[in-house]
User: What shape does this take?
Amino acid sequence: MMNEPTETPQSNAHEFTVSELSQSVKRAVEDEFGHVRVRGEVGRLSRPASGHIYFDLKDDKAVISTVAWKGVASRWRFQPEQGLEVIVTGRMTTFPGQSKYQIIVENVEPAGAGALMALLEERRKKLAAEGLFDAEHKQDLPYLPRVIGVVTSPSGAVIRDILHRLADRFPTHVIVWPVRVQGEACAPEVAAAVEGFNMLPPEGNIPRPDLIIVARGGGSVEDLWGFNEEAVVRAISESSIPIISAIGHETDTSLADFAADKRAPTPTGAAEMAVPVRSELIAYVDDLGTRQRTSARRIVARARDGLRASAAGLPRPAEILAEARQRLDIAQTRLAAALGRARQKKALQLAQLAPRLNRRVLLQTISSHRARIEALPLQAAILRTLGAKRQQLEQSWQLANSLGYRNVLARGFALVSDAQGKLVRSASVLGAGDRVSLKFADGDKEATISGSAAAPPLKPKKPKKSSAPPDNGQADLF
Amino acid sequence: MSEKTETEISSLSFEAALSELEKIVAKLESGEAPLQESIAIYERGEALKAHCESQLKAAETRIEKITLSKAGEPTGTAPLDE
Assistant: This one.
């Protein structure tokens, strides 16, 4: 080719076709840069549906395009992200169709843990600002979950550790949602598993867990990177089922751990958090049963004792009566004796008195009284009294005579009596022709009332009224 | 009334039943409750204890794995072959 003659002697340089040159450059580049290791920041990055990854690698002055084929990228533990400082391993090639050169990436690793941690910190701050890690979003774990969902690889030590510890503590229904725990597929699968458990209907044919464990064994930061992906963090944060995370070792912290309701240091630790120890619970419930039985029995016993004590304080009915009965007994005993004694005493008194009572004593008394009566100066006293009384009588008689009606008559008055001898006190009772008697001091005279007899029938009544003997009239005159 | 109480207890979670049982035991042990109430809460305590025990007895290990359709939807469960 070099030796071909040219028609333009001004230039003897070889003339390429575009393709020839492109191919020549491609060969040269591939020969020279068959294996490169480049450090740079990930620039623009795209993941088209093909599954290949395209991203720019740049520093402050230059940019190199890179491409990672699907089959290669899916095996990566670490996925490149824009802004991240990475070390890319691969080979240079050109893309003749666009006059471009690029790196076919074999592997990407973060350029030192510091860079990755910086990215992690930045993302953590962003998600924290959204409230995804807030303490008030944390849910309490169920005390005794009926069904536990485990999101992890179905093979490997992690699920074995979890199942083993669960079996030791509390046999439980476990449903494993198998996921890949590293590589590009990790994050979407874990997020889908957490969401999938949450979307199970409560009464569906697949039991809905009331607790989820998201677990992965230890590994490098890159290994665990899927658990720092936003999709995983958001799925965990939004889960209505409480979640325990156990990602890597205790010293590793993923953003999934921040979002989970509880963080366990290891998968085994997650199982311990998930369930209590059954045997301990059985013993505890048993103990509670014993304690409540004992204390209930004690309460009843105490009440019974109290009742007994109170009852003991009550005197017995027999005792209440006993004293009275005793008193009665004593009184009865004494009554009989006292009666006997009293009779004896009276008998004695009678015996003492009886001899003193006899006729001679009585007669003696009578004769002594008679003697005393006879000794009294009775006759003289009676005569004296009689004399005095007589004198009094005479004096009274004189006085009576001086005041008597006869003396009045002697002064010239006369007493008028009717035919029946009744004293006449009023002229109106006398009619003409009535016979009257007039009594003077020295004697009586008969007289007849003169004049005509007028209304004599009324008259007889009057005399009847004054039917008293003439002597009675004496008092009336005064 | 006791029938209602029993159905109410059977719907209690283990934790709620246990917590109530603990309260009853504490109350009985304090000896503060009057005799009649003590007997009533003791009966409830026994029912709660039986409920807790039945839940503890019912525990059994069952390990399953979700089976997924091609679209990634869960279709059912299968035994987990470790």
